[in-house]
Amino acid sequence: MKHRLLILTVLSILILATAVNAQQPSDPSRVFGIVEGYYRPGEAAALGASWDRIIFNWNRFQPNSPEEFDASSVPESFLSDAAAANRQIVGLIKNTPFWASATGNPAGVPLGLELPFDDPGNLFGAFVRRLVEYYAPRGVHHWVIWNEPDIRPGEGGVEFEGELEDYARLLQTAYRAIKAVDPAAHVQLAGLTWWYDVNHYREPYLARLLQYLNRDPQARANNFYFDGISLHIYFTTASVGEILEANQRILRAFGLGAKDVWLSEFNASPRRDPAAAIGTPFQVSLEQQADFVVQAAAIALAEGVDRMAVYRLWDNDFVPGQTEPWGLLRADGSQRPAFFAYQQVIQRMNGAGQITHVQRGGAEMVMFQFADRTLYALWSSGVDAGEFVINAADVADAGVVDAARNPVSVPIVDGRAVIPAPGAEMIDMDFVVVAGAVRIIELPGAPRSVSYRNAAGTTVLY
What we know:
By secondary structure, this protein is an alpha/beta fold.
């Protein structure tokens, strides 16, 4: 119920919005990534991903003592395959060895964080320094410090047992150790989930972390110990813009609005895939997964994210009926529709000069303006169907496609393309999870007038 009420609040906020215009990403050549593309480098290259997130497990590099350093835990082929495809590596550092924490758990707080980052007794600092010394010459200059510390014991899968203050010390240690070796390296905060704080009535983790760091007299001189934030957003179309905007507001409140914002994990697991079905909540279809990938990516681009990555490329170690089917590729390597959806995003939405997100009358449009053409991504926000109308008198074929780039027949009538917008499919939740089916049209020249006619016959102009 708490989740449902917040979703409805988010929807009400979004309906009031008229338009959002994107700022340019910090590195336009590295916007679109994939999580764990290294397992299937050929498909990662075909997808068009420009970066890949690899986990650097501390407990595999140093399983038994600080004297060890087993680089075979990240095979050299992962790096060479990525380099051959001009795919940048982003390293996620996590998982404490048993000997380096009081609890002996991978989620345990490393011993010695209260010490200076370069003190040998600061075990995490010593490891991070050694890690960067090894991998910076091999081209790895982007690091994410741990994963989802906002999930607390008893709430779900715990990745970090420590309190917020412990994570702050972990971050301070990592940032200083990394920059001491590789001053130009980029350091991202751990991926944050948002909903665990909301559902347990806590102030957002990012806000609490920045409040804590702001009391550190050396924080501003050290860039608050991070270069960007990482967000994980899943399943619900309506939440994407709201979560991104909320975190951007938090950054601006501390004068940190120039920090990178990464949608470092997003997806909607297709739990109704007949080849990989699993009976857990959020019974998303294959088509809805593809729609969510396009919707989330388009909204994120309009919100000005610097990077994004789908979690994940392939269903490795898949156990039917037990394992979540997250992959753009199934365990057998076959492509789900979402593979083609993300490929379309990368091929057709990259490099727009201006991106505008409009939400009005029960539908949404994200418009991508290029020098010689304009691309429109269109969908119904709720369960009611409607239709978009665009002036297309100068084209013989509207060329409308769905999220997975399958053609959708839309005739030109009286110089207009009338594009059906199917309503969202309700699944096993009492709120709209994935919005209605995506329709994409690209037309030459500058933006054109667009209108939307809803099921009641009311027409609104975009």
